[in-house]
Design goal:
Two copies of one chain form a homodimer. By secondary structure, chain A is an alpha+beta fold. Chain A has five helices and four strands, in the order H-H-E-H-E-H-E-H-E. The first copy, chain A, has a four-stranded antiparallel sheet with strand order 1-2-4-3. Chain A starts with a helix and ends in a 26-residue tail after the last strand. At the A-B interface, helix 1 and helix 4 of A face helix 1 and helix 4 of B.
C-alpha cells in the first residue's frame, strides 16, 4: 500500500496550473511533516505556503527545474505549479538541521500524492533571489521548495541501462 | 490513511529483541528508499543491513539513544533492536547528499510501521567506532542508523505545554 503510494510519487514538473489548491490543503500537508520525526524534537523547520497566482509568480523565477533536460527551461505558463511549500530552517532554534527537511518533504509529497496531487522537491534555488522576493529573514535557511499541483505529465520508471546512465529524459510523446 | 501511518511511526527505542526480522524484509524496506526521490537521481545512498545477533551486537555500542532521557543509557539486553539499516553516502558518487537520507529514512520507517514493526532514526553515532567495528571504507559517509524491531513500548503524542518544553519524557509506567 505504501509502496504503491511511493511509486506514484514521481517528480512531477508539469501541472494543470488552473487547478486550485487551498491553503487548508497545504496546512494539512505541513501537519504531516509536523508529526514526522524531527531531530531532538526541536521542530526547527518552518514553512512558507503559497497557493495564489501572485505569490506563485514571485517564487517561480528562482527555481531551476530539471538539470538533465538541458533544452527545457521549466514549465511554461499554464503548466506551472498551483502551489508551493517552502521549507525553512530556523537558525535561532538549531544550527544543524540534519536531514529533517528530507523527512518533512517526503511526508508532504506522499500526502499530496494520496490526494491526487503531485510535485517535486527543488533544492536548486536562487536562494538570495528568493529571499529578497519574499522578504525572508536572514534567520531562516532556505532548504527546499516543494512545487505542488495536479500532474499533467506521465512519468515512468525505467530499469537502469547497461551504460549506467541515471539521467531522466523525455521521449517524443514527452513522457 | 497516510496520516494514520505517520502517527503510528513514533520513535521506538525498546523492542521484543527475539522477534526475528528477515533480511528479505530489510531489502524490501531499502527498496522503498530506492524508489523514493534521490537528488539528481544519483542514488548515492548505500546500505548496510543487519538482522543477526552477532552483527547487531557490533553496531549497538556505537549508538546514543535518547538525548533527553539522561538516566537511560539505551535499551537493555532483551529490549534491543532485531535489526539495523545503516544509511551511507558514497562520496565517489556525490559529495553533497542533500537531504536524501531523510527521504530514504522516512520511506523505510513508514514501510516498517506498515508491517507492524517500528524503529528510530539515530544520527548520534560514534562514527569512527562504528566504521572500525564494521570495517566501513572511508569512501562512505555514515549518515544514519535506523534501529528496527517489534516495538515494546507505548509512545504518545502530547500537546506542547505552556513552558514550550519539547523534550520527550517517560512517566511512572514508562510510557
Amino acid at each position: 500500500m505504501l509502496k504503491k503510494l511511493i511509486l506514484k510519487n514521481r517528480s512531477y514538473r508539469r501541472f494543470y496550473q488552473t487547478h486550485i489548491i487551498k491553503v487548508k490543503t497545504l496546512k494539512g500537508l505541513v501537519d504531516l511533516a509536523r508529526i514526522s520525526a524531527s531531530a531532538g524534537n526541536l521542530q526547527s523547520l518552518k514553512y512558507i505556503l503559497s497557493c495564489n497566482p501572485k505569490k506563485n509568480n514571485l517564487i517561480f523565477p528562482y527555481l531551476k527545474w530539471a538539470i538533465y533536460l538541458k533544452d527545457w527551461p521549466g514549465p511554461k505558463e499554464g503548466q506551472r505549479p498551483s502551489a508551493y511549500i517552502i521549507i525553512l530552517g530556523d537558525t535561532q532554534i538549531s544550527k544543524n538541521f540534519w536531514c529533517d527537511h528530507g523527512i518533512a518533504a517526503q511526508s508532504i509529497l506522499l500526502g499530496a500524492v494520496e490526494q491526487g496531487l503531485g510535485g517535486c522537491m527543488i533544492a536548486s534555488i536562487d536562494r538570495e533571489g528568493l529571499r529578497k522576493a519574499l522578504n525572508i529573514d536572514a534567520r531562516y535557511e532556505i532548504h527546499l521548495v516543494i512545487a505542488l499541483g495536479k500532474p499533467r505529465e506521465k512519468v515512468v520508471i525505467e530499469k537502469l541501462g547497461k551504460d549506467g546512465d541515471i539521467k531522466y529524459w523525455r521521449d517524443k510523446k514527452n513522457i
